[in-house]
Amino acid sequence: MTPTQAAVSLALFALVAQDVTGQATYQKPPQAILDVLNADLPPSVSLNPTRDTLLLIQSARYPGIAELAEPQLRLAGFRLNPKTSGPARPAKVTALTLMPVEGGHPRPIELPKGKVGIPDWSPDGKRLALAVTTDDAIELWVGDVETAKLRKIPGVTLNATLGDPILWLADSNRIQVRTVPANRGKVPEAPLAPLGPTIQETAGKAGPVRTYQDMLQNAHDEALFEYFATSQLAVVDFATGAVQPSGPPGLYTSSSHSPDGKYRLVTRLKRPFSYLYPASSFPKVVEVWDENAKVVRTIADLPLQDKVPIEGVPTGPRNVAWIPTKDATLYWVEAQDGGDPKVKVAPRDIVVKLGAPFVGDAALQNRVEHRFSGLQFMPDGDRAWLTDYDRDRRWSRTVSVNLSTPDTADADVFKLILFSRSIQDRYNDPGTPLSKRMPNGRVALWSVNKKVFFAGSGASPKGDRPFLDRCDPSDLGHRPERLFQCGDGEYATATPLTDDGTKLLVRRESPTDPGNYFYRVGDKETAITTFVDPAPVLRGIKKQLVTTKRADGVPVSFTLYLPPDYKDGEKRPTIFWAYPREFNTADTAGQVTGSTNRFTTIAGYSHLFFLLQGYVVMDEVSVPIVGPPDKANDTFVEQLVGSAKAAIDKAVEMGPVDRDRIGVGGHSYGAFMTANLLAHSDLFRAGIARSGAYNRTLTPFGFQNERRTFWEAPGVYATMSPFNNVTKINEPILLIHGAADDNPGTFPVQSERLYQAIRGNNGTARLVLLPHESHGYAAKETIEHVLAEQVAWFDKYVKAAKPR
């Protein structure tokens, strides 16, 4: 340990050695961690719709805590900057560069002042549109590939309260935007005294609600939400900058033109608002407008969605959208089970359609046996792929349907099954069908002569080997044509650039090389990018995929990382990091995920930074919870401990892991796992639990994949709650939580109460509440402090632990 490392550890040890309460100053981790933390990562890459140009996007990694501390409003599930009518933490792009796919010189784009957002490509791939957030507004900027220059559209102030305010129209010449209404007046002022009490009432009909955060609290919150969320729809001409308002101001959440451009599908929220549910559940109206913004047809007038069963869907039209291959035809889905997944009925959903001029009743298109989960369209205009989902079996099925032939009562809807598989079966995943823009600017499946491109992870017992296929899944006897397969010793993906699949964009990485892009024609590849290794010190890290079985025969896997300075034969202190997941069967639970051939990068508050402090890391330990979805958690604790024991036994047998010096950690549900493992086993010397939930009575209407309510399974909730078993937590635990956590169920009070329970029962714990941070942590000062806390905690209680 260097003098600097020792100083950091001693400073924090002084705090963990005694009972303390108060606010500390931000600490920094050892320099070896800071060097990697602050290294520039390669940019992200965006391929334009015509697949001839790459956009390299460099983004700011860690904002300062002062930026996070700026005033914000928490309304109806949104966190808003009241100065800009946009998100409290907008994206911040620091560099944009255009790069021809077929080779050529990079062309940087000069950026305007402010926080530059991620650009949106026009359908023809020749233009860009993006939002730029200044101190008091959000501006619209546009640019084109030919000049590689951006320009501001004057007179446009965007409103991003309810989501992305920018949408290109199909002609690539016009942009639909949501703007701040002109003359909207001053921000509503809070009353000096309340107008009266806040009242809620229920009338005997079940209305289960998740533990949402940032909900409206009073009439003033309602007024603020309406003020900031109200926007004006408008269309901006790219060439001239002319702005044409459309319709009255409203609480618009979406607006999209029909493929022929003659109609518009608009969704807007309306009162009454809710104090229990986010804006996505507020009453809403779905309308069809003509070119003059006149309402042609109201498709749905939906009430507050406060009676939707857990894991259910609302009744009435949902998933309303245009059929991209028709001039002006809508489709939508309607539940036939009251939206309740527990009701046994077939079909569970129906798909209907209605075309211009939108009069009369919608026509039945398809009966859907299980819950509708998607509709993808072939470019020929008559065929589509419909997918449903059986939640009890966790089973997905995709069928081919004819848009010109509606179902009849005796029709075998699922006669032509294209795919039928467990969603947890990665080994037999055919991949994701790729889409492409059609001449009308809309997106459909990328199909040529009935053959569709598929890209998949290529999961196998030896790790992922991504592939690119082309096939006609309706030709059941025909094997897919494999256009690309990742080779040994690397991790590579491919994207087709042409209809015939002869030209590909390939991205390659390996344990020693960062991901770079190549233009491939046949067997010849030409490098497009030359990204360099941002942290060469990490190349000394070795990693290995490990598989084993727990006592009941269920497979368990993990990636074993060895630190750069590791020498054969050594036994090192070890970090066990995991996140439990549920599976229906042992076979799917045991399938390997990930690849050891990927380039190792470490960023943020990652536990992999422990590798730079001499620790071995057991990462992504699978920790499967196997069983029927409605009963798997009945044996959660037993399966949790069994998985951990099996993984540790295997790692110790391999040599580098010191059984007497193992620490356990996790984030969110992984933190919940950590507290449970400390309570129900003696496998670990200490734990780190970040942003977790530990008392399940505070999430009484289900959590994670637990479908039963507290009142249906009180014993399960009690057994699974570390809070109830706090007297068994006899190892030190570090609790870290964002003080502004916005994730359902993980209120900061979860960590506060667990800390108090441990403290009141003679346990050893430390609680760190991070100012202004949400479920994930963003500020540079925060990330550095979290890393310092983690290292100091495990150095004291794991690395320095005496043999048992």
From TrEMBL:
One of its GO terms (biological process) is proteolysis. InterPro entries: 6-blade_b-propeller_TolB-like, AB_hydrolase_fold, Peptidase_S9_cat. Keywords: Hydrolase. Pfam families: Peptidase_S9. GO terms for molecular function: serine-type endopeptidase activity. Residues 646-799 form the Peptidase S9 prolyl oligopeptidase catalytic domain. The keyword Hydrolase applies. It comes from the Bacteria. This is S9 family peptidase. It comes from Limnoglobus roseus.
